[in-house]
Amino acid sequence: MVAADEIANLVGGEAAPAASGEWLDKLRPTDGSVLCRVARSGAEDVAAAVAAARAAQPEWAERTAVERGDLLRELALLLRERRDVLADAVVEETGKPRTLALAETDAAVEMGLFVAGEGRRLYGRTTTASMRHRTVLTLRQPLGVAGLITSFNTPLPNIAWKAFPALLCGNAAVAKPSEHTPVSARLFGELAHEAGVPPGILNVVHGLGGEAGAALVENEDVDLVSFTGSAETGRWINQTAGRRLAKVCLELGGKNALVVCDDADLANAARWALASAFSNAGQRCASASRLVVFDGVYDAFREALLSGIAGLDPEPVISEASLERILAALADAVAGGATVLAGGERLERPGWHLAPTLLEGAAPDAPISCTELFGPVSVLYRVRDLNEAIALVDDSPYGLTAAIHTGSLHRAMRFAEKVQAGVVVVNGGTHGSEPHMGFGGVKQSGTGWREAGVEALDVYSDWKAVNLVADPALA
Ligand code: NAD
């Protein structure tokens, strides 16, 4: 029996507590109070979920992609119908403002609607052959069982970006959401079943990364691991799943730069810099944690930012541990010579609030300049020109997104062509994505896969080349 404030796993369509009987407390970031208890799963629970997925997958793959798309559309529509309940869950478990939670819920819906439509396309290629009377074409094949491991920061889109394409392509899935955001994940799983997704096709196993997550990565019967999280965890997953040559898709961190040129609309640049650096408490893979500003407008831009920061309503970070880690990095930066222009301190209120923090004077190779903090912290850098700006942007282990603010088409195109990033934005923020556009990064931000867009279908399917040889004599 599972109580309402206990979040069990979803295995083969049934609620299942962890085999160990253990639970984790999930705390509210706004005040540290207990929100609910979550199943603390281990290898046994993961094995049960993978077995349920394996058993259910063949029948699912027998359905046409159009049928699967139709069911997934029902799920997207149900998510839309329940957007208030879903957003409330996200607000409680993350502490973010309701407007953000609603926008993210809508983004998950849009991903579902986009992917559902792909059931009517799922295009392959028909091409020429070297031999007469031979036809050559390609078909997409499901991989089997997909392990989907996600971060807490935008919990519904994170699951939607993986579950919708994984299922459309004919796979069954075992999702391991972040231990920080179990409520929205439970709702997503329940709504999938309410929409008619068969039991066993989308299983949800809760728990800690090093326990439930690691067990999913190590399970020999998982054909694909798709992961959104930190580069450190991603590296371990790549090595571990790589040993059995499983397919691995990694969407990792960023140290994203927003460049402000001397011909930029400074008010617009400041507005986007504030949103990119501090909304969602900076807990975005695409947050603008580096602000690279031309010398000629540096002082004016800094003033615009500081007055904008003064008007922000601080959002909490996800946990006490995260807040302590960020504060330690700030202390280290100051010891290394950086200056705090705003924030830098824990706010005197319950929960895990750090005042939006702006620094300057950090060396480009200082830890604060190279390490992803995943918090409301951004650093200003001064540059002379575009070449220096591009060199500084690229002087990073990451390469997820980058933005430039300029009135010059030449500068915008030069930046877009040269900069080492998977996503480039001109005159906007470093964050924000479209369901029909591939999203992902270079260097330590990923391993070359793209999520969302039709590109996501390449993660969750294999190509099969088919050769049809006709015999004209039989015509
Ligand atoms: P994290 O790596 O700590 O955890 C991510 C997920 O992996 C969680 O579900 C966690 O439980 C699980 N996990 C942890 N250790 C594991 C292990 N050994 N084996 C298997 N699973 C394990 O990251 P986080 O703190 O949740 O998220 C922040 C990171 O996610 C940042 O680096 C951020 O940039 C990145 N992120 C990237 C994208 C993207 O699309 N590129 C999007 C969102 C977040």
Describe the protein in words:
By secondary structure, this protein is of the alpha/beta class. Helices cover 40% and strands 21% of the residues. The protein has 15 helices and 22 strands. It has helices at 43-62, 65-81, 83-94, 98-118, 155-168, 182-194, 209-218, 231-243, 266-278, 298-310, 320-335, 367-370, 386-394, 409-418, 455-459; strands spanning 6-7, 9-11, 14-16, 23-27, 34-39, 126-127, 134-142, 145-149, 172-176, 202-204, 224-228, 247-251, 256-260, 288-294, 339-342, 357-360, 377-383, 398-399, 401-405, 423-426, 442-443, 461-469. It has a seven-stranded mixed sheet, with helices on both faces. A five-stranded parallel sheet has the order 10-9-8-11-12, with helices on both faces. The protein has a three-stranded mixed sheet with strand order 1-5-4. Helix 5 links the parallel strand 8 and strand 9. Helix 4 runs parallel beside helix 5. The protein starts with 5 loop residues before the first strand and ends in a 6-residue tail after the last strand. The model has no long low-confidence stretch (mean pLDDT 97). The structure holds nicotinamide-adenine-dinucleotide. Nicotinamide-adenine-dinucleotide binds next to helix 7 and helix 8.
